[in-house]
Amino acid sequence: MLYWLFLWGVDRYPELRIFGYLTVRAALAAAIALIFGIIVGPFFIRWLTRRKIGQQIRGDGIPELYERHKEKADTPTMGGLLILVTLLLSVLLCGNLGSRMVWITLAAAVGFGLIGAFDDWKKIAGGNHKGISAKQKLLAQGLLALVLATLIYNLPADTFRYRASENESVIFAEHSVTTLFFKWLIPLGIFYIPWVMVVLISTSNAVNLTDGLDGLAIGCVLFVASAFALLSYLVGRVDFTTGYLWITYVRGAGELAVCCSALIGASLAFLWFNCHPAEIFMGDTGSLSLGGTLATIAVLIHQELLLPIVGGVFVAEAVSVIIQVTSFKLTGKRVFRMTPLHHHFEQLGWHESKIITRFWIVAALLALLGMATLKTR
């Protein structure tokens, strides 16, 4: 909206030129999301409390976990709705609404958020921690991911351009995967659609698994979103991509920096209320939405292989579950005391705050490591 205001009035009101700068709109997106979220948060929490939309705590067969977390029972959940509304408002105000990439990103945020909201509501209505079945959730995620992957697949070919060096000509990089450490492209053709689906589904579920302690998931999301805000800005600048970094140039990707900045502001606002001891939980509404949004941005800027590094905490949480389930089915033995991974450290006797802080430190280091790989290609 501010960008359209710039286009409409810049000739008559030169001071509106400021809204034409991407960096200004990105900063405003973060500030608006943060301020709006902190102001609206208390009213939203009271609204959830009055309607008894509270967290359900697992207690079946895990008495230690239940005893440790029973005081969190009935804490308002579905806080992901606050993140979603704040994100949407900020992007609609500060983003270029003529960008297809912006709308695809918002569609991912809302779509995965709705799946999570339905799952959360089923848990609340049933009075237990069981929502929709894993098969139903995966089917819904698969259908949404198929739609999003198809939209990304059909973006104009000249959107993605790549050149490995000054001596090589520019090539179109659509339907290709940009590798790490080497200046290579892997063309996938029609198989790019299932590839994108795997990235979207796996990331959304990985963030969902990470959401188990106060502020853990949202804090890690902050570091990942910050890294991808910078990445989006860089890949949208032809002078950086073809003249310095030699990574895939994505025309219009700079607008995704506004989306990432809005996500940073919304996450900070939510963390204000979600830090230990939490006043509100994001629920699957937030975790699935955040994971789907980050994955969509990673795919749109052709840096999806960087996502497992920058979002390494999410990967570790998901892999711990896979290892645990596989080991137990094959050998009848558990590798970890409990999964996801943060619960393993709880069982070792680590205090919740220590686990959260150390996971945040690891997330920050991984974000820096991911950015460092840009100059190793």
Rg, alpha carbons: 21 Å
Low-confidence stretches: none
Helix content: 55-70%
Number of strands: 5
What features would you highlight for this structure?
377 residues; mainly alpha; two-stranded antiparallel sheet; 15 helices; 5 strands; 65% helix; 3% strand
Short description:
This protein is mostly helical. Helices cover 65% and strands 3% of the residues.
Structure report:
- Strand 3 and strand 4 (185-187) form a beta hairpin.
- The chain has helices at residues 2-9, 22-50, 63-69, 80-94, 100-126, 134-153, 192-210, 216-235, 238-245, 254-274, 283-300, 307-310, 312-331, 341-347, 352-372, and strands spanning 160-162, 171-172, 176-178, 185-187, 249-250.
- With 377 residues, the chain is mainly alpha-helical.
Helix-strand blueprint:
Blueprint: H1 2-9, H2 22-50, H3 63-69, H4 80-94, H5 100-126, H6 134-153, E1 160-162, E2 171-172, E3 176-178, E4 185-187, H7 192-210, H8 216-235, H9 238-245, E5 249-250, H10 254-274, H11 283-300, H12 307-310, H13 312-331, H14 341-347, H15 352-372
Antiparallel strand pairs: 1-2, 1-5, 3-4
Helix pairs in contact: 2-4, 2-10, 4-5, 4-10, 4-11, 5-6, 5-11, 6-7, 7-11, 7-13, 8-10, 8-11, 8-15
